[in-house]
Design a protein that fits this description.
Elements lengths: L1 H13 L7 H8 L9 E6 L4 E11 L4 E9 L11 E8 L3 E8 L19 E5 L7 E8 L2 E14 L5 E10 L8 E9 L3 E8 L3 E5 L2 E5 L2 E10 L2
Antiparallel strand pairs: 1-2, 1-14, 2-3, 3-4, 4-5, 5-6, 7-8, 8-9, 9-10, 10-11, 11-14, 12-13
């Protein structure tokens, strides 16, 4: 029976039909609002804030692309035209990839294609959407290659029937971070997209009685408001 179903899927795929993959894709498509003009505001530690808006949604039989414009609001400068960034979410049959173009004039060095995460072009979700499902991708920094592992660690069913997915990203043996480990946690909610983000910051050394003490800090922010048009 399984062989017959698999064979039917293969034949249908040859003729351009994707019925066998619909459920996977539909799960992922539920994550973001299916509406142009939706705006969201995020606030976090140390006066951090940014705002985003869905400006375009492109769909074809193989993928859906969300184009999002955003700008920073974090006290460094209130000149919005200098604080711009763009996010592109590419949703195919089994994953969501986040791509960023960071035009913020005050962005950190090396963050032309990143916002707050250390990992550019990140696979943020991948089916099957179930607890303990994990996936890997490569990260190259200064000609050093690292394995990026992301795991769905928690799934919650909310009172309104929508689901929240919590992911944890880990990179081992990476210098500059406490215990040589970088970590990142995200929460995605159906109909809202990203609702919270946190990650480990690079080691900060402080001088205490002439001894350099390494301190690790967490950075984070959460969705404070979402407006549907």
């Amino acid at each position: 029976m399984f062989f017959r179903i698999s064979l039917i899927c293969v034949v249908m795929g040859l003729f351009g039909f994707s019925s066998c993959m619909i459920n996977k894709s539909e799960e992922l498509l539920k994550i973001f609002p299916d509406q142009i003009g939706v705006q969201a505001r995020y606030v976090g530690m140390a006066e951090y804030a940014h705002k985003v808006e869905i400006t375009n949604i492109t769909k074809d039989k193989n993928k859906t692309i969300y184009n999002i414009n955003g700008y920073m609001i974090n006290g460094i400068s209130d000149e919005i035209e200098k604080r711009q960034f763009k996010i592109e979410y590419i949703i195919d049959q089994n994953r969501i990839v986040e791509k960023i173009i960071n035009n913020d004039e005050y962005r950190k060095e090396g963050y032309d294609n990143k916002l707050n995460s250390l990992v550019p072009n990140q696979i943020i979700l991948k089916t099957p959407l179930r607890v303990n499902h994990s996936w890997e991708q490569e990260l190259v920094i200064n000609n050093n290659s690292y394995v990026v592992k992301t795991t769905i660690v928690e799934i919650n069913l909310l009172n309104d029937g929508k689901k929240q997915y919590k992911t944890k990203l880990e990179i081992d043996n990476i210098e500059g971070y406490f215990n040589n480990k970088y970590m990142e946690e995200r929460v995605y909610e159906e109909g809202k997209g990203l609702v919270s983000f946190s990650n480990t910051m690079a080691i900060y050394k402080i001088d205490i009685d002439r001894d350099l003490i390494e301190e690790d800090f967490l950075f984070g922010y959460a969705q404070a408001e979402i407006t549907y048009k």
